[in-house]
């Protein structure tokens, strides 16, 4: 048990049980871990620390991991949430690397920050211990908490006398290096630096999602990049999963981050992050996150569409089942099928049912978008008469139109019909009209009328609200949910105006048509149904 696989297994079990509060992190348990540590590889110890990074382990266990190398201590030091007294007791046990990690955090209490500051120059000065004899040219031994200076060959001039505080001037160090360069054999090969790329790095953001601190890789490409922007930002591209989590102040994991360029940060990463909140005010202060290279069975690039769509469809499946259950229970309470319910709780049940229905609509939109992306959308074209479909959608959007003080004005279209899948076309028109209605202001009317179309097509034009009239197509498609009206109103696009417009445009293409963004109008063109099939559809 003290070596090999047995030691590793015991290590994993003990750290997991202590980290999750199943057993006490007392002196006996920690001594047991110390006995196992020499037989457990560094990679296993680091993996254990990462597994406990967001589990809120006790202070004693964090202190134990802090005794280890920085690769093991870093995940816990970056995420630990401790009381002020526990932090202050831990600081003296950390080496300079550990305290440097804590200095990058923005969520530590003021007392802890003052405790870090009290170490002052001790964490930053290059130490030098004077040799026993004046002619002793051996290199000084740095203290345990200071990273050693790379070894230089003995040089002719004796080392300078240290000052009273134990440090020496930068000019002295430069002089030593210069003397070494003069003495070194020019034909002596210089050892190549380690070329193995880093396998992970950490970063912190502020409350806006802007990356402010990076540790583990070159930070030039990452500093200043925003997690709130899904479009490419210089060398950086952020997964939409991260931008969505930032808007909701939620944790994310398995998200993708692409970094271009030629630094050691370049390439594809998998990212997990945890939101941080101020202990006193509860305000969101930013994320602490860790990025790792993808495993051999993973692909972290943002470009493979098939994998992205499959992952999204799996997420949709996992969301749909509990949401349906919530809606079902709310309906049972509302209808009092489980027994008498007080009116106030019935009102709550109605609200829950309505919100669940809105969420289910958004889930179906995500499923549709994933099917389009993965070329898996199933369509059954048939004749769809346009005017009755538009009137039914306008009736469903009446509460949203009343809230916005607007109206949908559908001009007569007769029996004009499109050759289209009825469900896909209904989703296209409902999301498009919801986005336009949510963007309208009081007194505006959204006109919907038949438009001229080439032979074999039918077209509908929609007036653009003033809030959307000044923007071009790319700007409209990039709008988030907060840019064009309320998204919490009944019928409004829960996933935002930009998503609704992108979904409508992509559905139009899948249905064999197009959505054209004009200066004042949006025009939807679709294949026209022949007269015989229209007659069958209207009877």
UniProtKB/TrEMBL annotation:
SUPFAM superfamilies: Homodimeric domain of signal transducing histidine kinase. It comes from the Bacteria. One of its GO terms (molecular function) is phosphorelay sensor kinase activity. CDD domains: HisKA (cd00082). The keyword tRNA processing does not apply. It catalyses: ATP + protein L-histidine = ADP + protein N-phospho-L-histidine. Residues 314-515 form the Histidine kinase domain. Pfam families: HisKA. Its EC number is 2.7.13.3. Keywords: Phosphoprotein. This is histidine kinase. It comes from Sphingomonas taxi. The lineage of its organism: Bacteria, Pseudomonadati, Pseudomonadota, Alphaproteobacteria, Sphingomonadales.
């Amino acid at each position: 048990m003290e070596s090999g696989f047995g030691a590793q297994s015991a290590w994993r079990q003990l750290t997991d049980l202590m980290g999750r509060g199943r057993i006490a992190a007392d002196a006996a348990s920690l001594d047991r871990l110390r006995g196992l540590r020499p037989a457990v590889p560094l990679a296993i110890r680091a993996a254990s620390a990462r597994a406990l990074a967001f589990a809120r382990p006790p202070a004693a266990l964090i202190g134990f991991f802090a005794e280890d190398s920085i690769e093991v201590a870093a995940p816990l030091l970056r995420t630990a949430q401790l009381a002020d007294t526990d932090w202050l007791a831990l600081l003296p046990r950390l080496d300079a690397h550990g305290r440097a990690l804590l200095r990058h955090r923005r969520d530590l209490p003021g007392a802890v920050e003052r405790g870090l500051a009290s170490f002052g120059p001790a964490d930053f000065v290059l130490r030098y211990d004077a040799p026993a004899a004046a002619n002793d040219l051996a290199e000084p031994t740095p203290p345990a908490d200071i990273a050693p200076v790379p070894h230089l060959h003995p040089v002719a001039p004796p080392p300078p006398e240290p000052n009273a505080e134990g440090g020496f001037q930068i000019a002295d160090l430069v002089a030593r290096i210069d003397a070494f360069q003069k003495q070194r054999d020019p034909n002596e090969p210089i050892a190549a630096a380690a070329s193995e790329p880093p396998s992970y790095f950490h970063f912190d953001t502020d409350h806006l999602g802007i990356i402010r601190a990076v540790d583990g890789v070159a930070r030039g490409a990452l500093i200043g990049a925003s997690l709130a922007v899904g479009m490419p930002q210089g060398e950086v591209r952020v997964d939409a999963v991260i931008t969505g989590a930032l808007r909701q102040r939620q944790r994310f994991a398995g998200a993708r981050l692409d970094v271009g360029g030629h630094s050691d940060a370049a390439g594809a990463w998998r990212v997990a992050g945890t939101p941080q909140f101020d202990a006193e005010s509860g305000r969101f202060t930013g994320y602490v996150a860790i990025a790792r290279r993808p495993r051999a069975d993973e692909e972290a690039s943002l470009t493979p569409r098939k994998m992205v769509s499959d992952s999204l469809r799996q997420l949709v499946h996992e969301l749909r089942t509990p949401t349906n259950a919530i809606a079902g229970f709310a309906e049972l309470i509302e209808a009092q099928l489980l027994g008498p319910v007080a009116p106030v709780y019935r009102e709550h049940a109605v609200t829950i049912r309505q919100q669940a229905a809105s969420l289910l609509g958004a889930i179906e939109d995500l499923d549709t978008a994933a099917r389009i992306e993965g070329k898996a959308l199933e369509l059954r074209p048939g004749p769809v008469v346009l005017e009755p479909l538009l009137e039914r959608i306008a009736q469903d959007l009446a509460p949203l139109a009343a809230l916005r003080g607007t109206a949908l004005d559908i001009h007569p279209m007769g029996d004009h019909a499109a050759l289209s899948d009825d469900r896909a076309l209904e989703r296209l028109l409902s999301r498009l009209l919801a986005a336009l209605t949510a963007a309208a202001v009081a007194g505006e009317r959204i006109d919907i009328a038949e438009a001229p179309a080439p032979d074999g097509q039918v077209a509908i034009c929609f007036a653009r609200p003033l809030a959307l009239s000044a923007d071009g197509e790319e700007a409209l498609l990039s709008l988030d949910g907060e840019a064009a009206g309320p998204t919490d109103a009944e019928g409004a696009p829960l996933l935002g105006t930009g998503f609704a417009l992108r979904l409508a445009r992509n559905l139009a293409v899948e249905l064999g048509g197009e959505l054209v963004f004009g200066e004042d109008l949006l025009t939807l063109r679709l294949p026209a149904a022949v007269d015989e099939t229209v007659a069958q559809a209207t009877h």
